[in-house]
What we know:
elongated; 4 helices; alpha+beta; two-stranded antiparallel sheet
Amino acid sequence: MATTISAEMTPQGLLIPRTAIQEWLDQGLEIVKDKQHIVIQPRPVPRTEHERVKQVLEQSGRLVTLDWPPTSPPLTDAERAELAQKFSVGRPLSEIIIEERGER
């Protein structure tokens, strides 16, 4: 049953009932918001297996997109090399774990 949309124009903008929006989402439409516009459009069809899995996870609520920027900038190549040098000292963690398991 299609929801009757009784949109209302207010000083804040166009108001659309939540039931209509939920019906659009159930029908495979997506609602994309940017700074100036809200666009209601068909969901893009996933082209790769990765995109299909991502879409399924998003629809089930198991994958979320964070709305805030990272707390630190990405590492430079020099910083990565420095960390690689620091972590390369000593025995590999896998050897330590195997050794500890062997004692049981």
